[in-house]
Amino acid sequence: MAIVVGHLGTPEGTEALVAAMTEARRREAELVVVAAKGDPGGAELDTLRTRLADAGVEHRIVTGSGDLADDLVRHAAESTPGLIVIGLRRRSPVGKLILGSGAQRILLEAPCPVLAVKP
């Protein structure tokens, strides 16, 4: 079973990563971290690898294609899906009527449960 999460340097992305790490440890599952295309590599990914290793989380970091919603759903489908974790940002009253298109696509197309967290 795998827990799939995107790597984003936003408060929502950080909260999703923390929740995904917690779920991976709790379920004794592999954590698949999808790094967004164009995501800075090098030091930032090294820091991420160290953080995951220090947390004792079995993990794999993969590079996305540029469409994070598609990448998360695809990687969940390619592994034995357990859970996709996404971060949601606060929205205006009008924005609350319409969920973000990426989040909506993930919720509708996911082959497994989706955990949505917010900072």
Descriptive notes:
It is built from four helices and five strands. The protein has 119 residues and is an alpha/beta fold. The chain has one domain: Rossmann fold (3-Layer(aba) Sandwich), CATH 3.40.50.620. Strands 3-2-1-4-5 form a five-stranded parallel β-sheet, with helices on both faces. The protein is globular, with a radius of gyration of 14 Å.
Brief characterization of the structure:
By secondary structure, the protein is of the alpha/beta class. 41% of the residues lie in helices and 24% in strands. β2, α2 (43-54) and β3 (59-63) form a beta-alpha-beta unit.
Q: Main sheet, how many strands, which sense, barrel?
A: 5 strands, parallel
Helicity level: 40-55%
Structural class computed from helices and strand pairing: alpha/beta
By CATH reckoning, the class would read Alpha Beta
> How many individual β-strands?
5
Which architecture per CATH?
Answer: 3-Layer(aba) Sandwich
- Straight-line distance between termini: 26 Å
Domain UspA: 48-118
Protein name: Universal stress protein
Family: Belongs to the universal stress protein A family.
Pfam families: Usp
Write the layout of secondary structure elements.
Layout: E1 2-7, H1 11-27, E2 30-35, H2 43-54, E3 59-63, H3 68-78, E4 81-87, H4 101-109, E5 114-117
Parallel strand pairs: 1-2, 1-4, 2-3, 4-5
Helix pairs in contact: 3-4
